[in-house]
Amino acid sequence: MESTLWWQRGTIYQIYPRSFLDSNGDGIGDLEGIRQRLGHLVALGVDAAWISPFFPSPMADFGYDVADYCGVDPIFGTLEDFDRLIAEAHRLGLRIILDFVPNHTSDQHPWFVESRQGRDSAKRDWYIWRDPAPGGGPPNNWVSNFGGSAWQFDPASGQYYYHAFLKEQPDLNWRNPAVVDAMMAALRFWLERGVDGFRVDVIWHLIKDGAFRDNPPNPGFSHGQPDINRFLQIHSTDQPEIFRIITRMRETLAAYGGDRVLIGEIYLPVERLVAYYGERLAGVHLPFNFQLILASWNARGIARLIDDYEQALPEGGWPNWVLGNHDQRRVAGRIGSAQARVAAMLLLTLRGTPTIYYGDELGMPDVPVPPALAQDPWERNEPGLGVGRDPERTPMRWDASPKAGFTTGEPWLPIGPEREINVADETADPRSMFSLHRRLLGLRRAHEALSLGQFELIPTTGDLIAYRRRQEKGEGGTEEVLTVVLNLGSRDAELDLGQGALGHGALGHGAVGHSTGAGWRCLVSTHLDREGAEPAGPIRLRPDEGLVLAEG
Ligand code: NOJ
């Protein structure tokens, strides 16, 4: 096996800092709160924390509107807090990944303040300014991701500026080399402070069509969908020149050693997604793969998408899987708490780097937020369509107390009624969702077959998904093979692996070869009540059950 990097072996845990732990009683989480709870990440068994933005920001989009790339917003603490946090993380063997938001700044960023001063401003071309269309009105039909035209008129200069998100988030002009240089300097600022990598926000948005052509209508659009779905974003995103920018980012990271990771946030169909590995793998290390979030939860569809993804990967491209994030319904809300356990087993036994969203390791549900308390600007812009992202951003639950141990003040979002879903109680409960995550992460650490091994789907029907992970072990030429069987249905199911597995040529040697007739050993069930030898014959799964099996 070639040498592997930490981000290939490891598991990433996303922290939304507003909601992790509030150390100063203002109802909003902060960096010191994260530092105090790094032990939770260690106990869970993850390897890296990706922290959503904590930079100075007016918070129009809760930190995704950056007013200074090289600082810490006072809500979250100070640069010294950050230095303490990263030092402590490294002491504990954890890596820190920051959120880099290069597509747009805040409209309060000094660069934009200067840019909007007039057509002659030295920073005019740092953003995307265009004259009105010939007959008046916005330069083209591009729509903001948060609804309405993506062009904002500036009466003083008579021009429009482009914003793919809020009007408070003007897009930078990445065709301007001065912008590229300034943003590389921002990366270096954090690399100097020891960060281990970046998750790059909406990386496929950075370069837009040079001619600003209209986007074509989306034939699949129907009433009730968000505005952004009206057009296919073929000219406003995913342009070939993006790869030159990504190369610059990679070079900037590489100057700090070979193991800093570059992750791209990309929502594109799989064949375009994998293009972001770049030619000769010079693109991002990990184009975030959100398919498990977006797909409907049925065994046939999930098995197919796993297979298609594996087939689509370029040679040497390292896979990754994401089950939740701060922009999407929580997994327990999407598929229910029983299937969320099956999904956790899937996430942590597939080939590729897993990303866990904070709270999903507890089975936290989406917390309904009444319209009057809505915080998310997208929900406020397009109310009633179900686009709001507050429900998945609610405070982490540390204990069963009314404020969940998150704050002594008033939490910025409601905590929700399910008191039993919390770190303290779930740590004490050997069958909890938290215990399941610990067990699976422990298994992943202990068995290279799971973290690094090859992947092979086993044909199944109905509600079942099954696959093998295999890895050569040391000198002796033996091979470790683990088999995963998942029941995505709510009925008992059965899979005759005996013939299938042992009759399979590649399995007929090494450790497996000796196990003929020796049956199966269950390493872990999602129900956490079944370990050890299995009765001879087909494997039986209970409703909503997943198993990791070894032979013999
Ligand atoms: C993607 C982020 O994940 C999302 O939360 C944010 O609103 C947009 N980018 C704009 O930065």
From TrEMBL:
Keyword Hydrolase recorded: yes
Alphabetical keyword list: Hydrolase
Superkingdom of this protein's organism: Bacteria
Sequence ranges assigned to domain Glycosyl hydrolase family 13 catalytic in this UniProt record: 14-393
Region described as Disordered: 376-416
Pfam families cross-referenced by the UniProt entry: Alpha-amylase
GO molecular function, one term: hydrolase activity
Membership in a protein family: Belongs to the glycosyl hydrolase 13 family.
Protein name: Alpha-amylase family glycosyl hydrolase
Annotated source species: Ancylobacter crimeensis
Organism classification: Bacteria, Pseudomonadati, Pseudomonadota, Alphaproteobacteria, Hyphomicrobiales
